[in-house]
Amino acid sequence: AIEIAKLRGQSGLITLDPGFKNTGSTRSSITFLDGEKGILRYRGYNIEDLAEKSNFLEVSYLLIYGELPTQEQYDQFANEITYHTLVHEDIKKILDGFPSVAHPMGVLSSLICSLTAFYPTSLDPNRTDEEIKLSIVRLMAKLPTFAAWAYKNKMGHPANYPDNSLDYCSNFMKMMFALPAEKYDVDPIIANALDKLLILHADHEQNCSTSTVRIVGSSQASIYASISAGINALWGPLHGGANQSVIEMLEAIKEDGGDTKKYLDKAKDKNDPFRLMGFGHRVYKNFDPRAKIIKKAADDVLDKLGVDDPVLDIAKELEEAALNDQYFVDRKLYPNVDFYSGIIYRALGIPTDMFTVMFALGRLPGWIAQWKEMRENNEPIGRPRQVYTGANERPYVSMKER
Ligand code: ACO
Predict the structure, then answer these.
(1) What is the value of ipTM here, to two decimals?
(2) Which of 17, 121, 178, 252 could form a disulfide with 184 if both were Cys (CB 3.0 to 4.6 A apart)?
């Protein structure tokens, strides 16, 4: 709607688009998405090809620098990231200050933001491209360490240091699950499954957290502060937090006797705030292509690991019922990326409140690429307008006369 703001004492016309449902905020060459056809491409490469043939660090390089790396570029990128996985010991003191009930997403965003204190040159708006490159490597290297530490804090276990002999995902799994004085070998099936999930989450154009990263970055805030803000935006249940909510919902259905129809009816009831978590998407009005890949991966991973999860059967039953229900058909509500991802995370041994952290791990290169593009485009500070609906000019009334 274009509202005449003038009527309310403002001048000019304002395009009013709550939730920015149809407002473009930027020109971007990173991710192409066709929600009607269910197409997703990073830098022109189909997500299906990348998930099958590439690996997470290669996809990260592609997103951040625009091209698939040569072997030499890849090795350099991977080596630099490996070199920077350690974090300053004082960051552990910050970690120790969090109670064990702290949600790992809050811990993660705080630790990432703390990098502004350890690398204060990141605050300088005139930082060089070389400094930015180093910040990018640091973020890619340290976020898995922080993520694993957030989990260890919750468990009350000592934090594990990175093992730089391992690849990106294996190192993360070892930091998460290794216990003192116990040998821990990462199962390659688990590391590969995680790598694929991270690729599928790596970017998704101007979603809530990415827009947050760009808008915070547009004020020339540090890249660490911008990514920290993105983590907080991702946390909400309508965005990345949905993966946690999906499993909680599926478990509640299981506990309640597995009656999927009852929950489908609840989701359709406009007087009931319940929504079918993991269903619907602002942009996809067709199958989310990531959900298709993840559904198959969930079957494969559970099969390979010999895990029998009754929640997967409930998920499939719910999907089948929703796809044949007029309410969901009319509104083009399909499973999104979060519907099956939690089932894989569970099979990998990752606890529910770490699911959104896993999403952040995957989304990191996308946020970085979008922040970098925003900077390179010299984009103006993000500052939406509003249509004022409050009181007109009023005389001040002193407190004793109120
Ligand atoms: N269950 C039941 N009804 C739904 C659902 C759902 N999951 N999603 C949308 N609808 C209905 C709405 O009630 C509305 O119905 P109406 O037209 O009769 O009023 C219609 O479908 C359109 O929904 P909106 O909320 O207007 O769509 P919007 O684009 O604003 O929301 C969103 C998209 C937030 C993803 C929504 O579908 C939702 O809440 N889904 C559940 C949460 C979820 O899975 N989020 C993860 C998204 S993917 C991601 O962030 C990685």
Answers:
(1) 0.95
(2) 178
